Amino acid sequence: MVRKLITAARRLALKIASYGLMHLVVAILVAFAITRDWRLALAVGVVEPFFQTIAYSIHDRVWHRIERRRQLSGLEEASEAVTARLELMDPREQMRAHGHAGHSHALPRSLKQVALKTVTYGLMHVTVAVSVAYALTRDWRIALAIGTIEPLVQTVFFTVHDRVWTRIEARKARRGVTPPAPSPAGRGRA
After folding, report:
1. Which of these, 26, 109, 172, 189, is most buried using a 10 Å CB contact count?
2. What is the CA radius of gyration of the chain?
3. Average pLDDT estimate for 41-53
4. Mean pLDDT throughout 36-58?
5. Residue 135 CB-density burial (10 A; 0-12 exposed, 13-18 middle, 19+ buried)
6. Taking the chain, what is the end-to-end CA distance rounded to the nearest angstrom?
């Protein structure tokens, strides 16, 4: 059980860290393309992703709750979310709880939900980007340029990042559902 907790915590930390690194690189490149000033680009690239990563974590948790709320009541939601996030549910229990193995913290199933999740991410991103860029530059024109162009680029990368992690989680869930192969030690004995 402790191993499962550590593995789940590592996977979550890796997902958030990979998002943060992706965001850092894109933010620096976009800010430099707009300002042609490496110092300002590095400042935007370091400060803005820090706040975006916090906002992303909140956005991700809100979407997880929205997806689960459609299926479960409050107490069931809380217990399922904790056990699924910590990967304490066995594959049969996961199938019973939400119709597939793996926790519900995956990309929504319908194209409408994918689009809505991406749009809400984009709006959140623009708000944070403009605010941070203005705080660093004190120039609304540069802040609006960075705050609109950078989030558009990041939204594309966010969608790709989310899809990659969804596939990773789905692949892991499929491996958890299939029964283990017989061990070679058990063969050949009479």
Report:
1. 26
2. 20
3. 88
4. 89
5. middle
6. 34
Contacts of 81 (CB under 8 A, 6+ apart): 64, 65, 68, 103, 104
**Own/partner pairs for 125-132, CB < 8 Å, 24+ apart?**
125/52, 125/55, 125/150, 125/151, 125/154, 125/155, 125/158, 126/151, 128/48, 128/51, 128/52, 128/55, 129/48, 129/52, 131/51, 132/44, 132/47, 132/48, 132/51
**Per-chain mean pLDDT for the chain:** 78
Pick from 29, 33, 34: nearest CA to 139: 34
User: What would the pLDDT profile of 54-108 be if each residue is shown by its tens digit?
Assistant: 998 899 888 888 877 766 655 565 566 666 655 565 666 666 655 554 444 444 4
Residue 182: DSSP 8-state: P
3-class SS shares of the chain: helix, strand, coil, % to 5: 80, 0, 20
pLDDT single digits (tens) 114-134 = 788 888 988 998 899 899 999
